[in-house]
Amino acid sequence: MSSTAPSKEGESTKPVNSRGKVIFASLIGTTIEFYDFYAYATASVLVFPKLFFPDATDINALLSAFAIFGVAFFARPIGAVVFGHFGDKIGRKGTLVASLLTMGIATFLIGLLPTASMAGWAILAPIMLVILRFFQGLALGGEWSGAALLATENAPEGKRAIYGTFPQLGAPIGFIIANVIFIWMNVSLSAEEFLSWGWRVPFILSAVLVIVGLYVRLKLVESVSFTKVIEQEKVQKLPLAATLKSHWRPVVAGTFIMFATYVLFYIMTTFTLSYGTKPTLEGAQAAAEKAGKPMTADQIAAFVPGLGITRSDFLWMLIIGVVFFGIFTVVSGPLAEKWGRRKFLLGVTAGIFVFGALWFTMFGPGQAAAMVGLIVGFTLMGLTFGPMAAILPELFPANVRYTGSAVAYNLSSMIGAAPASFVAIALWSAANGSTWLVGAYMAAAAVVTFIALWLTRETKDMDYENNVA
Q1: C-alpha distances in angstroms, 436 versus 299, 306, 357, 428?
Q2: Which residues pair with 3 in a beta bridge?
Q3: How far apart are CA 208 and CA 43, in angstroms?
Q4: Non-local CB neighbours of 436 within 8 Å, separated by 6+ positions
Q5: Domain boundaries, the chain
Q6: pTM given for the model
Q7: Superfamily of domain 16-218+229-454
Q8: Burial zone of 409 (CB within 10 Å; 0-12 exposed, 13-18 middle, 19+ buried)
Q9: What is the pLDDT of residues 269-313, one digit of tens each?
Q10: Is there a contact between 177 and 208 (Cβ–Cβ < 8 Å)?
């Protein structure tokens, strides 16, 4: 149930969202959104190369699957503009419901898609996958900012960074749910059954989560911040135009503040899954010998080796790493309140730089070293991701806050997340199986973010509720 805000004598009380409702609604929404997104990311490595690009070489099929994976990131800025417009124009509640519904329908339909091997679908199947992937990105472009505002605009004074970690927790929780389901299907079914229909189950099951999320979000009331925008008649006719005209500097700052976070995350998830499960050269040669088709000298020269860890084992390793992601997402909130967002994130970003510089020594070879690398990387991911739901919205006044934070967050996804997996795989391939270039790429991203943070003012003590341009 909604409670009411305290009022002075003669003033009517205003309904507000209870703490429990804010936590659950912001968390459940992003959990569902990231579950849907990760289901696709995992399928991009495990099944889509074979199902939608069966005639391509292994590395080209993987690159094609990741190229479609990247389509969503180019759709996200469009989603930020569309959903941001309505979020700043008509309110946060209806916009959050629409973004969740869009993501849910697109993900459900991916689970029903024909594959390229089916008669008449060789060309249409990949095209339909691109279209649905675009709508996934469109929805996520509007979801995150709305969930971040739901949490921070309802936070008590001095606790915005803490409340801001609630929607951020949806990322590790969604990841864990999606991958546990994939592991369960992979273990329970034969390889033929999994490729035939098992991969569809995680996408179809998303419908259940969407129904729960919609039920919770339909019971929300608008935040006090947006209500004040309406009362002061400061609703922007064209929020995007107002943002780009008067607030383009924080858009640029926010875009690059988020940059290293995106690069780190998609290297730690999609790239490591490819690298960790790719056979070693010795393993590939042994498999070829067993099959009676020994590798030729040209095949050996062109082979890009990985760590040779089984898919099930590596998915469990990822899940363990993501537990650290979740724990340190929660830890980051109080630390960002104590030290300030800027100072805290400068320290974390320096840690990402060191991690990238030492990547080749921390991530393999061997399963134990890879596990250490995953734990360190996901710990840094939680520390950098947690405060983003506070710092990005705090860069903007309330009447363009949805649009501004969404555009910054999703522009960063386009330049940081979209190419991350593709670039990392290309660098890994170019270095003949060595990953030192991947680490250098991560370190360079950290330098960019460090500079953006250094040039940005501290936002911890701003008047968030009454900041209306």
Answers
A1: 23, 13, 8, 8
A2: 16
A3: 20
A4: 359, 360
A5: 16-218+229-454
A6: 0.84
A7: MFS general substrate transporter like domains (1.20.1250.20)
A8: buried
A9: 888 988 888 888 888 888 888 888 888 888 888 788 888 898 888
A10: no
